[in-house]
Predict the structure.
Amino acid sequence: MRATGETGREALESLGRDGRTALLELSEATAIVRTSLRAWDRGDLSTDELTAALRRTDAMDAAERRAYDDVLEATGDDTVKQLTR
């Protein structure tokens, strides 16, 4: 969680147990976490949406995560919002 800085700490304090667990489990996927936290920090995602995005990302297998990373690289932070739907 050090890589996510102050925003990561604030998110951990704001999220419920499920959201915190998902965020911590994703700590290895720093790019996904940073993008999700940036969207949350800007107000583009609610706390519930952040939790949903983190859960869905955590549930991805390796191939799905690679595909998500490719889309994320091509489209930027808007991909995170789509993940909450």
Q: What stands out?
A: Residues 62-75 form the longest helix (14 residues).
